[in-house]
Design brief:
Na+/H+ antiporter like fold; mainly alpha; globular
Length: 394
Amino acid sequence: MTAKRHPFSILAGRIARLLHGDAGAGILLLAVAAAAMLLANSPLGPAYHEILHHPLGSSPVAHLGTLHAWINDGLMALFFFVVGLEIKREVLEGQLARPEQRRLPVLAAIAGMALPAAIYLLVSGGEPRLQAGWAIPAATDIAFAVGILGLLGKGLPPSLRLFLLTVAIVDDLGAVAIIALVYTAQLDLTWLALSGVVLAGLALANRRGIKRGWVYALGGTLLWYAVLHSGIHATIAGVLAALCVPIALDRQGESLLLRMEHVLAPLSAYLIVPVFGLANAGVALPRGGIAAIDPTLPMAVALGLVLGKLGGIFGAVYLAEKSGFAPRPAGTSWRQVLGLSALCGIGFTMSLFIAQLAFPAAPELVEDAKLGVFAGSLLAALLGFVLLRRSARG
């Protein structure tokens, strides 16, 4: 006779299974974002902001004088390192390795970044102080988007998930390029030259076939330190260092890049990104509530995410198939493509990160942009979920 399980044991088991699947990282990030919002608007709000922004008594890196700076410029460099590993793997051996595989995701990602930026600029009305935020709605949060697909179960064609991943990877690459080219402060040529020397050393180690992990860990740390002082955003060092990690097999038949990605990807998804969300998602609403906020910036971001991503990606896929440039993902219906395009409007992590870079001297605009990110991401998630749920099998 089977012993009756306690309700709490059943609940814990279901939560564990849910967090272990595709939906896990997205659900955790959602919980963390909600917690940050509650903290920022509770009696603990002042303490929450004080912990993040109060100058540290001492810091080993002078440029990082607060806990918030360590998270955004330090910890997030490791997140971008994982992004770089994923990009390199997909381009060399994955779903972006062959030209015919790259056509549709690259086209969809470009359109899915261009249209949100255009809608943002249109809605913001050309206001000079808001123009720097044009890239905020251009990015997709892969953890949230894949998490929504995970909640839908196995009733969707596998090609849909694969297409989402490849579009998100190209999207991440575009976001990294925007950060490097657009949101760069005044350059320090000495530190920039030193960054080049360290990067050349990492590339040489790769070319010489050095496959010791500590070499790239040490070189990546030195590169991050130099880039941090160069004027280019420090997280770019994470991507550059990752691109130097060798993917070729060693004598034991293992790949250093795959081994690093296997170890660091869960750390990034279940620790680094949630910590970033906790530190950046807390928006303190004004005393007058949402009605006291100027809606221009939040509306520009939200519409860019919802309408821009949906229209850009779906339009690109539709035109690609009708013109014979590339077929839509195998076995998918147009409703499923539309639902997936809507999901790509979830722009949490990268959008929040770009918002910090877009308005460094205007914290009130950063807060307004965050509200737009939350509203747009929520609407995109709900729209995508409904469309895909109705077309899922079983």
